[in-house]
TrEMBL record:
The organism of origin for this protein: Photobacterium sanguinicancri
Name under which the protein is recorded: Alpha/beta fold hydrolase
Domain AB hydrolase-1 stretches: 13-240
A GO MF term: hydrolase activity
InterPro entries: AB_hydrolase_1, AB_hydrolase_fold
Keywords of the record: Hydrolase
Length: 253
């Protein structure tokens, strides 16, 4: 699958991978900082943004999509930064590109299967919007608000609500995300990656827990960890300067 991607800056290559319901613009603040020092490749994962849609949605397939971008750009080595679901794609990439991946940074996700369904209200809201003919984003937000209470979450989702040839629609493939939700939240343990690895946790987020320490150590034996105070799952949006500094310090260490 040929992903949509954007290349900025020059130097050693870094791949940025967004999370569920996102697009390459979600890590734009981080890309803006990194492109001053590196060649930054931001990707839209399959079923997201302007990349193709597919009913197949495993982490290995998504990792292979990213590796295809790396090959197209003829990159011998590269680093990767992924947030949430994109962090799992980055971890899966470490298994199929061990010899080429120089540094791995995972933002607020662990290499584990999560049991809790965290997005029922989001899917209900997306499907509610899809039931109606909508001519502007404000109308979509009204329908979305019936299920999604948090204004910030609604605004994040609406970034992927775009006007196409047949009117407004979600850019991400809602049906495929629903059908593959257990895979998205799941995880199959991978072969250990012994390269430089950093896990960054939002202090108030529940996605990385003390109970996950053994899973991290088994699959990423040389991993370091850093906690960002007073942030949740969207740590890079809440404290972009702090997160950028942590990442740059790690990359340069």
């Amino acid at each position: 699958m040929n992903l949509h991607y954007r290349v900025e800056g020059e130097g050693e290559a870094i791949i940025l991978i967004h999370g569920l319901f996102g697009s390459l613009d979600n890590l734009g603040l981080l890309a803006r900082v990194l492109k001053e020092h590196y060649q930054v490749i931001s990707v839209d994962l399959r079923n997201h943004g302007q990349s193709p849609k597919s009913d197949c949605f495993t982490y290995r397939e998504m990792a292979q999509d990213v590796l295809t971008v790396v090959d197209d750009l003829q990159l011998n080595t590269f680093s990767v930064i992924g947030h949430s679901m994109g962090g799992k794609v980055a971890m899966a990439l470490s298994e199929i590109a061990q010899d080429r991946l120089t540094q791995l940074i995972v933002m607020d996700i662990a290499p584990v299967a999560y049991q809790e369904h965290r997005h029922k209200n989001v899917f209900a809201g997306l499907l509610e919007v899809a039931k109606h003919t909508v001519s502007k984003r404000s109308e979509a937000e009204t329908y979305l608000a019936q299920h999604v209470v948090e204004p910030g979450v609604r605004q994040f989702l609406l970034k992927s609500f775009a006007k196409g040839d047949n009117g407004y629609a979600w850019r991400f493939n809602v049906e495929a995300l629903i059908a593959n939700y257990s895979t998205i939240m799941g995880w199959s343990p991978i072969e250990p990656f012994t390269g430089k690895t950093l896990f960054i946790k939002g202090q108030n987020s529940e996605y990385i827990q003390t109970a996950h320490r053994n899973d991290v150590a088994k699959q990423f034996p040389n991993a370091k960890a850093h906690m960002v105070a007073n942030t949740g799952h969207w740590l890079h949006a809440e404290k972009p300067d702090v997160v950028s500094r942590i990442i740059l310090n790690f990359l340069n260490s």
